Amino acid sequence: MLMFSVNPCYDLMPASEDVEELWNEKNYENPLFNMDAERQELYEECQRRGVGITVMKAFGGGDLLDGELSPAGKALSTFQCLNYALTRPGVAAVMSGARTIEDLQADIAYESASEEEKDYAPALASFPKISWSGHCMYCGHCAPCPQGIDVATVTKFLNLAVSQGSVPETVREHYGTLAHTAGECAACGACERRCPFQVKIIENMKKAVEIFGK
Ligand code: SF4
Ligand code: SF4
After folding, report:
1. Which residue minimizes the CA distance to atom 3 of ligand 2?
2. Which of 74, 94, 124, 201 sits a CA distance of 20 to 30 A from 83?
């Protein structure tokens, strides 16, 4: 397993051995676009190898929960931060920091929170200087697909295969167990209209068919 800092602001930062860079305000002054490629690669590699990531700094030391302090310029809720971390490839658990019993209870409430409360996509899509346009965030906002395709999961498997340059056997097996696969896509476009990050889903479904054969 691997313990690693994961949150929607640190994920934009290039890999560095200097941890101070993660909360250096200067690094967030200019517009930021999309996840750092090395971080993405790390998460995907972990998922491929069955290495569970346990997350620390899901709230950026609390800064992400405060609009004044957050590098994004807007506050996220604890539920949104936890859900973001838990939906990254490879992530198995979040070690949420708690200063008080109330903090801990607020974190545990995630287990009974509604999907709307956990939904981080609209918040991320509204950050003033940060954009994930064209990048699948695995938020599931594109659902429901009339063909029953789980677009977020298909896209996750597609990205794992593309970054590896071949289809790992475990990914092929998991893809094979999906009730509906990309080959059933009718190109209706309903998912693309709902995606807050302008992902070219129909194109991705075609690529998935090329790669997985169905
Ligand atoms: S395609 Fe868009 S809406 Fe669907 S999971 Fe990815 S980012 Fe979210
Ligand atoms: S375009 Fe394809 S994946 Fe998207 S909702 Fe329509 S059938 Fe489903």
Report:
1. 185
2. 201
Q: How many CB atoms lie within 10 A of CB 124?
A: 21
Cβ atoms of residues 72 and 130 within 8 Å: yes
CA atoms within 13 A on the CB side of 52: 6
Verify whether ligand 1 is closer than 6 Å to residue 158 (CB atom). Answer: no
Contact between 57 and 19 under an 8 Å Cβ cutoff? The reply is no
Looking at residue 3, the DSSP 8-state letter turns out to be E
Q: Which amino acid is at 22?
A: L
Cis peptide before 144 (omega within 30 of 0): yes
The DSSP code for 70 is -
Query: Are residues 163 and 46 in contact, defined by beta-carbon separation less than 8 angstroms?
Result: no
> Which atom of ligand 2 is least distant from the CA of 187?
1
Q: 185 CB under 6 A from ligand 2?
A: yes
Q: 154 CB under 6 A from ligand 2?
A: no
Report which ligand 2 atom has the smallest distance to the Cα of 182.
3
Per-residue pLDDT reduced to its tens digit, 144-193 = 999 999 999 999 999 888 888 888 888 899 999 999 999 999 999 999 99
